[in-house]
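In this supplementary section we document a worked example of the pipeline. Step one takes a protein sequence of length 229 as its only input; no multiple sequence alignment statistics are reported here. Step two produces a three-dimensional model, which step three serialises into structure tokens for compact storage. The input and output of this example are shown verbatim.
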Amino acid sequence: MITIYNIKKNIDKIKRGDYTYFLDQKEANQVKSKLKKNEYKIFETYPECNKIILYTSNIPNIKTYEIKSKIKLRHQDILGSLFSLNITNEMFGDIIVNEDKYYIFILDVIDKYIKSNLLFIKNAEIELIEKDINEVNNYKQKYEEYNIIVSSLRIDTIIAHIINTNRNNVIDKIKNKEIILNYEILNKNSYILKENDIFSIRKFGKYKFIGVEKTTKKDNLIIKYLKYI
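The serialised model returned by step three reads:
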């Protein structure tokens, strides 16, 4: 949940000529809504990244690390290890999992702490290799593309099709706070999906709704969505 305090502290940093912490898209929109367009610039670690930093004149000092591991890692493995070190979400940017290569972006203020404490992931020893951000900033998010036929754009209907279950099970997932929509916990199963909405389903992954491709003769909808990989 975005708190008034989080918004204020990031706005204060901009007003001081500093840069913000890492912000997801919803947080960034909240902060930008309180600023004039000429008061900030946007720093992206790579095109279409999920987390950005707002800054004034000085480019943020970001550390980029490749994680060397002898075992295969998943996004959630790396994320869980960072959280286990009591590092808050605002201190690190996107986690890139690109086949057998793994990268993290962190604020310089936690650089020493990360290097001293992020030594294992999934009980396997890892090595952090510092990289120039320019080696990574041309990375492009990869997706799998899908088309399905649905009766409506209700989020519970679409998710039921995506994970091959019934709407009652989707409603249970919503009650259990297992579905995140546009970076907030979903609490309304009748929500109508809009173009470019992003949602995550615990244990099933992250998705982006593209829109309606066409309508069938029986008035069903052929929709397109992307699954992050």
